[in-house]
Design a protein that fits this description.
Elements: H1 3-14, E1 16-20, H2 21-26, H3 37-43, H4 52-83, E2 93-99, H5 105-116, E3 125-129, H6 137-143, H7 157-168, E4 174-180, E5 185-194, E6 199-203, E7 225-230, H8 233-251, H9 267-290, E8 299-303, E9 309-315
């Protein structure tokens, strides 16, 4: 590592409080667990090992912290409106959740939606994934980038920025496209509707990327708080392979699943194909586009080999 790189790394670390798992878990003292085990099982994604202890020790205190940030931001908005002698026009608190494919960010986003909605100050929480802002497969094929699905250029970034701008402008009703993982494509006749919730959680690979040019708005400019889910690359590769095999097994019972095209492969062939997808698409995207945005997050969750969070880095205020 060069001297400049070492200095940059040191400076970046100084922006954060680094909290180990034990210290973070103690923050849950006195907080009641609002979710039943059956609810946690329903929230858990394929390949995730989310259990009640992880919910109580990691995500319950995180949800309380987010709720406090949201309540404080709402109060500041109301006080600003009063100062300007205007009606209170407080808009939804927006949380971004970023990280690699298969790192568990979708599960975390769903879990935070459920937990935050149990706090008195944030009862209405909505979740939108950036998958809905992928270009349809037909458009990806037309542009010749179907094999780069998930890379920044495969998303309609302007539509996502416009959507979040309307959310943060306080529009009474906002619509987002809907993506089906079963179809592996946008569903033209479906959409997600939001009517001024207290909190909007935005989950996706590239949500913390800077804008393509200095004169444009970044997606993250419209966030009030952002989370990056981090893990060693080798661990994520293993999780990706496990998830691919699990989705393939599920395809046997669902004739409409996109993964039916892999149903006739042997386990060894399916594993080889999964690692091909990882090495050719997901790993380059992680290294080139996703991981470099980690330092832009308000909070970083560092996961260990078993999917459990080992450390939390919280940006200093």
């Amino acid at each position: 590592m060069s001297i400049d790189a070492a200095s940059t790394t040191s400076a970046a670390h100084s922006l954060y409080r680094e909290i180990d798992r034990g210290e973070w878990a103690r923050l849950a003292g006195g907080l009641s667990q609002p979710l039943a085990e059956t609810e946690v099982v329903q929230i858990r994604g394929i390949g995730d090992r989310l259990d009640m202890a992880e919910v109580s020790e990691v995500y319950l205190p995180l949800s309380r912290l987010l709720s406090l940030y949201a309540e404080t931001t709402k109060r500041l908005g109301a006080e600003t409106s009063a100062f300007l002698s205007e009606p209170d026009s407080t808009t939804p608190f927006v949380v971004g959740v970023a990280g690699s494919v298969a790192v568990g960010k979708s599960t975390i986003a769903r879990l935070l939606r459920e937990l935050m909605s149990r706090w008195p100050g944030t009862p209405r929480v909505e979740l939108v994934t950036t998958d809905g802002f992928l270009y349809p497969n037909a458009e990806l094929e037309r542009r010749g980038i179907m094999d780069r699905k998930g890379f920044p250029e495969s998303y309609d970034r302007r539509a996502l920025v416009e959507f979040l701008t309307r959310v943060k402008s306080g529009d009474p009703e906002v619509h987002a496209p809907f993506y089906s993982h079963m179809r592996y494509d946008i569903v033209p006749e479906a959409r997600v509707t939001m009517r001024r919730p207290d909190v909007v959680i935005v989950e996706g690979l590239n949500v913390l990327q800077p804008p393509p040019s200095p004169n444009e708005v970044a997606v993250s400019d419209l966030f009030d708080f952002s989370i990056y889910v981090d893990a060693d690359t080798d661990n994520v590769a293993g999780w990706f392979a496990d998830r691919f095999l699990a989705l393939r097994r599920g395809a046997f019972s669902n004739p409409n699943s996109f993964f039916n095209v892999f149903a006739e492969l042997s386990d060894d062939e399916a594993l080889e194909m999964a690692m091909g997808f990882w090495n050719d698409i997901n790993l380059p995207n992680l290294v080139e586009n996703v991981a470099p945005t980690k330092h832009r997050a308000t909070l970083v969750l560092k996961k260990g080999r078993n999917h459990a969070v080992e450390r939390v880095l919280l940006r200093k205020v």
